[in-house]
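Z., the sequence and structure:
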Amino acid sequence: MANRVLRSCLWSILFVAALPGLTRLGQAQERFNMSHSALTGSQAILFVTRDAGIFRKHNLEPQIIYITGAPPNISALLAGSVDFVVFAGPAAITANLAGANTAVLMSFVNTMEHSIFSQRAIKNPADIKGKTIGVSRPGSSDDYGARVAVRKWGLEPDKEVFFVSVGGPPDRFAALQTGKVDAVLIQPPLTVRARKAGLHELASLADLGMDYLGTSLVTSRSVIDKKRELVRRVVTAFAEGIHFYKTNKQASLRSISRLMKIDDAEAIEESYNAYAVKFMARLPYPDPKGIEVILKDLEKSNPKAKGADPGSFLETRFLKELEDSGHIAKLYGEKQ
């Protein structure tokens, strides 16, 4: 009798442990959709956080979806197909000005960190006149950065320099290598591969110190209203993911390698140093100055951008709660 009871208890324990979507404490994992726009080092934080088990720690089970380019990600967010998007900020600003209820929760990069690589024959910015730059698609972050750079060089986009959609970073790199385009914008770790391939680095936008709303975590006001606790846990998970990224280098390098499908140690190292060390802040507050720069650029084609309040595009209360609670300081061993 005692043995039968014991066996019954053991089977019950094994059954519960095998139930999908349950944590060690028996709490159900909350499944939700989250998309991202590019296979780049700047978006590796999403995969570092997942691979480290930090989402699971907070009873979260994100279904990560790759959708090339920012505009389709915005469409998915507004349609309710995803609850969160990881991508560069201009598309969220543009959608908000058009009446969408997008909200930027945090920004992992507050500058334009792309580099412009060109064919070997293009030695300086003046040589880009009459040439074609390959971009992901109109409205994407690299499209925006390319147009800003072209204007800084005194040239007129679409009249003196032309743009063609070729896809995500690996596609742009391939298009440049095969001569389909004259220049592209790419980020680490592809920058290392481009140098090794003998392509010419025409400019590093990071050296310009441009304020910008780079890779960010974006949601909608409707998601915040309906799923506030989910938003809070996702923000917490990413903040802890940044700490892991900064303090667990080898595991983070493996995550970057898997995301980018590369094993070039130098390229992966450059990506880690750029994002985990240089660009990503412990407290990833979006910089209103970056939004001001985007709004100023949008004024040329959108009158609603003029006089818009940068703060109206942000929702940083969840990040502020974390800061005020002392949680972030404790992660880094700082005294309160």
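Residues 58 and 210 are 35 Å apart (CA to CA). DSSP finds 15 helices and ten strands in the chain.

Let me know what you think.
H.
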